[in-house]
Specification:
binds magnesium ion; alpha/beta; 4-stranded antiparallel sheet; Rossmann fold; Alpha-Beta Plaits; 280 residues
């Protein structure tokens, strides 16, 4: 029974249906309602989507029950679940330990297509040493700013000093302008600026997963909360899938969850849904 079955015919799964109903995203949800769980390949961002955002990225922890939910969901989706994050995969593994999932890190630069596969790094632009140095100097200049060197990207977090947002942005732009040919771009996220390779995106990550079992032949569903996720939304929709954001409805998203807690509860209800039942 799908949520649009208006016949009133029950199928014995009313409790599960109610759980889906409570936690579903606001907005146009009809498209996903017709999917069965075994038809879905699910791609989920980490910070701000699965995880509540902490003041510093190294303070982020998985809330109680989330690791168990993700493990159950990975099994329920027969492996077609991946975390697609701006963090390094090694960092995701620390947060979700002992669980390892298929994952992409640093906005598509890193890929691990199966939970037991090695981490591969894509063809990304190299960040010049003097750009790293100038980004570090920028962070040092503004009390509360934090520079994170991810290898394939640099992040400057300004959550603790929002008054300096525009000054930090201007300085990073000036630094990047000196490397116009380097294939790098400056991306604005939630309380963070990132200098990353223009050659990879979360959309590329989704396409790479979808080219392989167990993701191939399923319909991609991408959930994310930030500008970097928009490329993932677009890739999912181009492949006939669906996109959901968190908090604000971002470009390309069909609907928005209210908060990470709503995403976690919806994922739990999806993991618990009886095989073959339509989603809510
Ligand atoms: Mg996010």
């Amino acid at each position: 029974m799908s949520m649009h079955d208006e016949s009133g015919a029950g199928d014995g799964h009313d409790d599960e249906d109610c759980a889906h109903e409570r936690n579903r995203p606001r907005g146009e949800f009809g498209s996903i309602a017709r999917l069965k769980r075994e038809e879905i390949a699910l791609f989920v961002d980490a910070d701000g989507t699965l995880l509540d955002i902490a003041m510093r990225p190294d303070e982020t922890v998985a809330p109680s029950g989330l690791v168990e939910t993700l493990d159950a969901l990975w099994r329920a989706l027969e492996g077609a679940l991946a975390i697609v994050s701006g963090r390094r995969i090694e960092n995701l593994d620390r947060i979700f330990a002992p669980l390892r999932l298929p994952a992409s890190g640093v906005h598509g630069a890193q890929m691990r297509t199966r939970r037991d596969a090695p981490i591969l790094v894509g063809d990304t632009a190299i960040i010049p040493a003097d750009l790293i140095r100038s980004a570090r100097e920028t962070a040092d200049r503004f009390p509360g700013a934090l520079m994170e060197d991810k290898g394939e990207a640099i992040a400057i977090h300004w959550r603790a000093c929002p008054q300096f947002e525009e000054e930090i942005h201007a300085r990073l732009l000036r630094g990047l302008a000196r490397h116009a040919a380097a294939g790098l771009s400056l991306m604005r996220g939630h309380c963070v600026f990132e200098i990353k390779s223009s050659r990879t995106s979360k959309g590329d990550a989704l396409r790479a997963f979808m080219a392989q079992a167990p993701f191939a032949q399923r319909q991609p569903v991408f959930i994310g909360d930030d500008v970097t996720d928009v490329a993932g939304f677009a890739a999912a929709k181009l492949l006939g899938g669906h996109a959901y954001s968190v908090s604000a409805t971002l470009p390309g998203a069909d609907a928005a969850f209210g908060a990470p807690q709503d995403v976690r509860e919806w994922l739990r209800s999806l993991a618990d849904a009886p095989c073959g039942s339509a989603l809510r």
